[in-house]
Amino acid sequence: MRIRRVYEDPLPDDGARVLVDRLWPRGVSKERAHLTVWLKDIAPSTALRQWFGHDPARWDDFQHRYREELAQNPDCVRQILDLAQKGPVTLLYGARDTEHNEAVVLASYLSSLQEN
């Protein structure tokens, strides 16, 4: 499973391209995004996203809270796991911070489920 910014050009080996942001990224057309699916319901809740504000000081707490939200959203999680059984999946996000964003947490969460 890959993680990439939606602003980067698609690669031939991206496989299924899944946008995991609740909001559509500014300046990106649907054609340019080359999405397989936009799963806005798998993104952190609006309240959690606004609380976090991409503040690295809140990163640990954000990860914990977002994982709790993911555990309550098995249908969306299952959609990505089903795609992963068919081939590569690239999780796309719009944040500038490449280390502190929901796609990083989601990829880790999905990996832990695939190992079990």
Short description:
The chain has 116 residues and is of the alpha/beta class.
Structure commentary:
The protein is an alpha/beta fold and 116 residues long. It has five helices and four strands, in the order ββαβαααβα. The protein has helices spanning 30-33, 46-52, 59-71, 74-86, 102-115; strands at 2-5, 16-19, 37-38, 89-93. Helix 1 links the parallel strand 2 and strand 3. Helix 3 packs across helix 5. The protein is globular, with a radius of gyration of 13 Å. The mean pLDDT is 95.
Give a topology summary.
Blueprint: E1 2-5, E2 16-19, H1 30-33, E3 37-38, H2 46-52, H3 59-71, H4 74-86, E4 89-93, H5 102-115
Parallel strand pairs: 1-4, 2-3, 2-4
Helix pairs in contact: 3-5
- The global form is globular
The main β sheet shows up as: 4 strands, parallel
* Largest beta sheet: strand ordering: 1-4-2-3
Q: In percent terms, what proportion of residues is strand? A: 5-15%
Supply Rg: 13 Å
Assembly context of the chains: single chain
Structural class, from helix and strand content?
alpha/beta
* Total number of domains: 1
Which blocks of ≥5 consecutive residues have pLDDT under 50? none
Strand tally is: 4
Q: Between the first and last Cα atoms, what is the distance in angstroms? A: 16 Å
The mean pLDDT is 95
Helix-strand sequence: EEHEHHHEH
The total count of helices amounts to 5
InterPro entries: YeaO-like (IPR052552)
Keywords: Methyltransferase, Transferase
EC number: 2.1.1.107
Organism: Acetobacter tropicalis
